[in-house]
Automatic annotation (TrEMBL):
Keywords: Glycosidase, Hydrolase. Belongs to the glycosyl hydrolase 5 (cellulase A) family. PANTHER family: ENDOGLYCOCERAMIDASE, PTHR31308. This is Cellulase family glycosylhydrolase. Residues 47-371 form the Glycoside hydrolase family domain. Signal peptide: none annotated. Residues 395-480 form the Glycoside hydrolase family 5 C-terminal domain. The keyword DNA repair does not apply. The keyword Hydrolase applies.
Length: 488
């Protein structure tokens, strides 16, 4: 079959399966399915005190893919400006295999040191950093980025410019051939995957003691080449994850390891067949699930208005169900690795509000794409906030001192409500971020539960900390509303 025809068939298949998934998963009033009235999972990323962490931030950054030194555009002052404008606590930081391992078995410690310097910038602002081994269309030798040229066998097939959905570029013969070599579909180069695991070992060994690093996203948008669907996710992809998890765990037992579904389902509402992955570390597993979110109606250039907004909402409902099903099967907490849109389009602020609401309902965090100044960013240029920045900045719980039951920020009433159940061994306060636009004078607190709350407000960081007496099994509900203007 000709590649142009294959691309059309692939896009048609995605549309068909999405449509079938929507019909099956979404009733007239939204999501259906699930069991019980409680939370859909009780697996969360936690800190040393056992508090559940809700991580909210940006990807940094698209510019790193093609810069001369592999570094993003940011300076230390930009990281401080990001916190000041958005109140975020998390960054998904892009690194590349080609930079980590420029030659087989040779690992660039200078590059890792430059990454570590930028991690330190984020640490100074209280951020956690997820290191993401990023690739698009495999590597530069076949028209993409990520893999080094020495680990690329494109079958001597040139790549050509493509139009249409991003999936079209992945169906180029050279890109398909390169992925087939990497996954072992073609058995000519088993060393490629072995060296990729070795590159992750080098990264993990370098950052093993760095407490600002949350963990590692093992591969961005894994693409199956000529093998797709469940055959890819349960076969080559699962085997790759097991190999890479084992390699990282040989040097780093503590950092979180995040896995993504196949690229064709990563940002869509398609089901994933990714199986549960065991963690060989002693103690509880630290394997997380990091899908993406790019609704097709918007990803094709639509704006969040009219029928496109209606279709996008249906897409989001189905996406939510598929993510929850996969996370439940994997017994893994969810962290949304990428989401975003061209914010210059009509209705962009409403879409951001919608996604924030969906994430609140799911009780998960995520990273918006991307920090690079431009239409997909909170910056028009370095240091200059775009109007959308005030929409991206939102009230949210950063750390919850127990097992989360629910949380939601209602932008119409400016009320942030957080409920949690006391859990054994969890200590410390429940901390919430209050953006200055909505809470210029901090927040008034109401807590239903046992005892009188102790509150502390940090006007510089805009963090409100609330501590309540713990009692096993008791549920607390915290409501924060804007504080009235203080009188002299």
């Amino acid at each position: 079959m000709g590649m142009a025809r294959l691309r059309r068939r692939l896009v048609d298949l995605v549309v068909l399966v999405c449509a079938v998934g929507l019909l099956a998963a979404v009733g007239p009033n939204g999501p259906t399915g699930g069991s019980g009235s409680g939370p859909w999972h009780e697996r969360f990323i936690t800190d040393a005190q056992g508090r559940a962490l809700i991580l909210y931030g940006l990807n940094t950054s698209d510019s790193a893919k093609n810069s001369a030194d592999g570094m993003p555009w940011i300076k230390q002052s930009d990281v401080a400006a990001e916190y000041h404008a958005l109140g975020t606590d998390f960054v998904r930081y892009l690194i590349q295999w080609s930079r980590v391992e420029p030659s087989p078995g040779v690992f660039d410690r200078h590059y890792l040191a430059e990454v570590a310097q930028r991690v330190a910038w984020y640490k100074a602002q209280g951020y956690l950093v997820l290191l993401d081994m990023h690739q698009d269309e495999y590597g530069a030798a076949v028209g993409g980025d990520g893999a080094p040229a020495w680990a690329t066998d494109g079958g001597s097939s040139p790549s050509a410019a493509t139009k249409g959905p991003w999936t079209a570029a992945y169906t180029q013969p050279a890109v398909v051939h390169a992925f087939d070599e990497f996954w072992g579909t073609r058995p000519d180069h088993p060393e490629y995957q072995q060296q990729y695991a070795a590159a992750w070992t080098a990264v993990a060994e370098y950052f093993v003691g760095n407490d600002a690093v949350l963990g590692y996203d093992l591969m961005n948008d894994p693409w199956g080449g000529s093998v797709q669907g469940p055959a890819f996710e349960t076969g080559p992809l699962a085997a790759f994850y097991r190999r890479t998890i084992a390699a990282v765990r040989s040097v780093d037992a503590n950092h979180w390891l995040f896995v993504e579904p196949a690229a064709i389902s990563a940002g869509s509402s398609l089901p994933s067949a990714l199986p549960r992955l065991d963690d060989p570390r002693h103690g509880g597993a630290r394997i997380g699930y990091a899908p993406h979110l790019y609704p097709q109606p918007l990803d094709d250039g639509g704006s969040y208005t009219g029928s496109t907004a209606f279709l996008t909402d249906r897409f989001l409902a189905s996406w939510t169900i598929q993510v929850e099903r996969t996370a439940r099967r994997m017994d893994a907490p969810v962290l949304l690795g990428e989401w975003g849109l061209d914010t210059s389009g009509d209705g962009a602020h409403l879409y951001i509000d919608k996604v924030q609401t969906v994430l609140d309902q799911m009780m998960v965090g995520g990273a918006m794409w991307s920090s690079d100044p431009g239409p997909w960013s909170p910056w028009t240029k370095p240091g200059v906030e775009a109007p959308i920045a005030a929409v991206i900045a939102t009230a949210y719980p950063r750390a919850i001192a127990g097992t989360p039951v629910s949380f939601m920020y209602d932008k119409s009433t400016l009320a942030l409500t957080v409920s949690w159940k006391d859990a054994p061994g969890v200590t410390g306060s429940t901390d919430v971020y209050l953006p200055p636009g909505d809470f210029p004078n901090g927040g008034d607190v109401e807590v239903n539960g046992n005892g009188t709350p102790v509150t502390a407000w940090n006007a510089r960081t805009r963090i409100l900390s609330v501590t309540v007496p713990a009692q096993s099994g008791l549920t607390h509900t915290l409501t924060v509303t804007p504080a009235s203007l203080k009188q002299n």
